[in-house]
Amino acid sequence: MWGYKLGIMGGGGHIGLVHAACLAFLGYRVAAYDLDTAKIKSLKQGIIPLYEPGLEKLVHEGIKTGLLGFTNHINSLRDVDIAYICVGTPALPDGLADISQVENALEELVQVNKGPFIAVIKCTVPVGTNRKLSRRIKDIGLSHKISIVSNPEFLAEGTGIEDFLKPSRIVVGGVDREAVAKVAAIHTPPSAPVIHTGWENAELIKHASNAFLATKISFINEIASLSEAQEGDITIISKGIGLDPRIGPYFLEAGVGFSGPCLEKDLLSLINQYNAAGEEAPILKATLYVNNQRRRQIVKNLEKALGNLNGKNVGVLGLAFKPGTDDLRDSHSIPVIRHLLSLGTVVTVHDPMAANEAKKAWLMRQFPGILWASSPYFAAEGKDALLILTAWPEYQEMDLDILKQKLARPILVDGRNLFKRVQMEEQGFEYIGMGI
Ligand code: UDX
Predict the structure, then answer these.
(1) C-alpha pair distances (Å), 116 with each of 142, 147, 148, 294
(2) pLDDT category, 95, cuts 50, 70, 90?
(3) Which of 69, 123, 255, 256 has its CA 20 to 30 A from that of 76?
(4) Ligand 1 neighbourhood includes 154 CB (under 6 angstroms)
(5) Helix (H) or strand (E) holding 316
(6) Ligand 1 pocket mutation pick from 123, 218, 322, 353 by most atoms within 8 angstroms of CB
């Protein structure tokens, strides 16, 4: 197996880079290709363009052993046995996933690699895409040289390396049994169950997994609304529900809702696939509706405490879509900040990871009015209220005495339920959580 040479299309992106680094760590020779020359240039020097715990170390190790190489010359993939396609599938204006990057990646490969090789589709693509790509390859008379295997990734940001090395399951779909078996054999720890199946099942397993996670979050958020109205505590309710092994404790944290580059985009794409098939998707639509409602609710919570937000000074803690990442793609913080600014609120933002210079510049172009704070305490200084949008552990560890002194009014609106209401009230805060 280790004799195989592997290629990664989209090797500078989150999924591609984690795959490249982990596969080199497992002993394979890996060529990570990306069109973004600036990214490749810095990766060659061991500079990682994104934050993922443990990734930098693995990339450095891979470069050192010589097993991991970065390239922007597609020719470097002319002799790979297996090419992992890890490019983006962004949402089109109608919500359906745009697979043009997948198609282009495959075309580029076909031009340089005479085969036989296996193209592994890692990215989340609409159901039917693998079959469509395979048919196209057959039409140009290359099906004897190229096999398409669907092998969806289930990596969450912040735990990407662990998710790769210790997967909960391996899903491999395709019609070429030998190719499917080869892909599964690349990396399947003994503890991981393997599902060998067809393309469509593999594609739907990926979509349904993300949709289910999103639905679980919206479900608990819906319960949180009633809990809020009845003075319940959603954190205790979640615990009580999650102890039932049939339900499980994960993805039951109520708050401002889910966001990020995957859950919402994949849900939208799935809804559009139903629409295209003339089918309804009421649960999925409700999941999205509840999620959008949570973003409006947090602004209402702020209004509950401050009245009209025009001219009010608010510190916002958290830009990243979740802790453990610097990723701002489709983060809920962006629409919430946009809403606040539209109401005339003066917004000062802090994030421990997602406020590097490049991201600041990007955000400033969208919201020229926002101010920046280098610590949560600076974000609180002289403010009418503090709003928590991302569950960074450092926010939970803030010194509440200092925080109270810094704030002009001790109001904490918490979109991630990091504190207990009683504790905060004892400290002299007006505390508004979500469902507590
Ligand atoms: C997700 C899937 O988990 C992963 O398997 C898939 O491959 C890619 O999409 P990711 O987008 O990295 O991973 O984030 P995830 O951990 O799923 O969280 C998504 C969003 O849901 C975040 O905004 C998070 O804060 C929110 N969330 C998560 C909640 O609001 N409550 C929860 O209980 C869990």
Answers:
(1) 9, 8, 11, 50
(2) confident
(3) 123
(4) yes
(5) strand 313-317
(6) 322
In short, whether 392's Cβ falls inside 6 Å of ligand 1 is: no
Q: Provide the 10 A C-beta neighbour count for residue 233.
A: 18
pTM of the predicted protein model: 0.95
The rounded Å distance from CA 253 to ligand 1 centre is: 11
Q: What is the pLDDT of residues 317-369, one digit of tens each?
A: 999 999 999 999 999 999 999 999 999 999 999 999 988 877 888 888 889 88
Counting atoms of ligand 1 from 1, which one is nearest the CA of 261? Answer: 11
Q: Give the angle subtended at the CA of 194 by the CAs of 188 and 199, to the nearest 5°.
A: 115
Tokens standing for residue 229: 């109205």
Model confidence at 1: pLDDT above 60: no
- The number of residues making up the chain comes to 436
Residue 53: count of CB within 10 angstroms of its CB: 14
* pLDDT tens string 219-264: 999 999 999 999 899 999 999 999 999 999 999 999 999 999 999 9
Catalytic residue list contains 262? yes
Q: How far is CA 117 from CA 103, 110, 132, 380, in A?
A: 16, 9, 18, 56
